[in-house]
Amino acid sequence: MKAAEIRSKFLKFFESKGHQIVASSPVVPGDDPTLLFTNAGMNQFKDVFLGFDKRPYSRATTAQKCIRAGGKHNDLENVGYTARHHTFFEMLGNFSFGDYFKQDAIRYAWELLTQHFMLPPEKLWVTVYAEDDEAYDIWHKQVGVPAERIVRIGDNKGARYASDNFWMMGDTGPCGPCTEIFYDHGPDVAGGPPGSPDEDGDRYIEIWNNVFMQFNRDEAGVMHKLPKPSVDTGMGLERVTAVLQGVHSNYEIDLFVNLLAAARKAVDGSGAAGYDADSPSLKVIADHIRACSFTVCDGVIPGNEGRGYVLRRICRRAIRHGYKLGARTPFFHKLVAALVQEMGEAYPELRQNEARITEVLKQEEERFFQTIANGMEILESALATTGKAGKTELDGETAFKLHDTYGFPLDLTADVCRERGVTVDAAGFETAMNRQREQARAAGKFKMAQGLEYTGSATTFHGYEVLLHETATVTAVYVD
Ligand code: ATP
Ligand code: MG
Ligand code: MG
Ligand code: MG
């Protein structure tokens, strides 16, 4: 079954259960300053959960374009190194706005997976929020999942469970306990079951999260009851496709096999040769072209602040990995065509904007290749000086200046140094970075005057009142 068919089966299944099929919202949330990018299917329904907005339906189903490369859910650094994380992915979801609750949500999920997608029940594991006896009983007594495959997250993990089986959209907003469904990819893959010490491996992969939306968390962390208990679920299309196509990694599904081939071709065409075709770098490139293209498509351009800055980071991470493989001329923008080929039918906006997306990415890429060339010159001369002085360590100040003034990434510096048997003075780099951070903190106040301030790892709306109180800490944003 191809990804497109799985997407449509999901939507049709929930339509048959009285759900309205609703189109994906853009990856750039229209009117939610607490959110950098759309990170879940429920985002477009946030106000419906909160009771501020009414819809003509109480059940909905979507395939939502999501980006998790900043803010509360940030998977950027995982990409390339796990079988299951993307920066851009599609989240399949069903929603109940004060209509059904735990029992129907769990039953629908089980029915779809075992009777329509025909997954063997013994391959499925579930987790429930530690104190949620109701969900536990539904799984065990009604659905019949044996106790040894139901894990109460919390019993053995202390503080971790609150974040694991209690889902939050961000630091504020709708949230609630959840129950998650995992697929066991078998003993050939390393990793333990959910709740075990080695659960972070990729053997047991979480495919679907069912959230029982019950609270609205405010800025002070206080939980307010929602007007009505609701349901919000999310299943990663790429993850369930991997399961249904009988492969382990998301990067082995039809769509990614084609994108990886296109990435290889584009990198080769730009002069690279003799690299490992299974390298994380190719996965990074194939993944990032989706996030970058969809982001540009929905109106973002690379820049130094907010969304534009995150887009620039993703773009540059992809280019850096291409450079690692040996690419010496722009290659990344050439992948837009391959992406349109793969996803243009499901997302016609991609096809309509193909020329513009390609051009925006090409310009960013040309700029960054120039940055790399300039940085290489400075680095070469610093390395020559280091060598003449008989040292085998590049000083942290130079590494920081390359990063901060010339936009030359630290990991490229480290790579080049490694090739020459030279190390980088990490402590010296940190010192210089901290000094810069202090200066940026002061500069942050200026940016806040515009009302919107994105911090590096979390996105927070400070608003004008912060300027008056001056108590909020502002974290500066860095290109890494
Ligand atoms: P994980 O623990 O694997 O990082 P998660 O618990 O952060 O996943 P949820 O917030 O529960 O994920 O999102 C719902 C579903 O969306 C997940 O069950 C998974 O199928 C999918 N998903 C989440 N993050 C990603 C990602 N970065 N790439 C691809 N699919 C994802
Ligand atoms: Mg996650
Ligand atoms: Mg999880
Ligand atoms: Mg989850």
From TrEMBL:
Q: Where is the Alanyl-transfer RNA synthetases family profile domain?
A: 1-480
Which keywords does the record carry? Aminoacyl-tRNA synthetase, ATP-binding, Coiled coil, Cytoplasm, Ligase, Metal-binding, Nucleotide-binding, Protein biosynthesis, RNA-binding, tRNA-binding, Zinc
A biological process (GO) annotation for this entry?
alanyl-tRNA aminoacylation
> What is the annotated localization of this protein?
Cytoplasm
One molecular function GO term is:
ATP binding
The entry's free-text remark on the cofactor is: Binds 1 zinc ion per subunit.
Which terms in the GO cellular component ontology are assigned?
Answer: cytosol
Q: What does this protein do?
A: Catalyzes the attachment of alanine to tRNA(Ala) in a two-step reaction: alanine is first activated by ATP to form Ala-AMP and then transferred to the acceptor end of tRNA(Ala). Also edits incorrectly charged Ser-tRNA(Ala) and Gly-tRNA(Ala) via its editing domain.
* Domain remark text: Consists of three domains; the N-terminal catalytic domain, the editing domain and the C-terminal C-Ala domain. The editing domain removes incorrectly charged amino acids, while the C-Ala domain, along with tRNA(Ala), serves as a bridge to cooperatively bring together the editing and aminoacylation centers thus stimulating deacylation of misacylated tRNAs.
The protein, known as: Alanine--tRNA ligase
Organism from which the protein derives: Caldimonas brevitalea
- Record gene name: alaS
Which stretch of the full sequence is covered here?
1 to 480 of 879
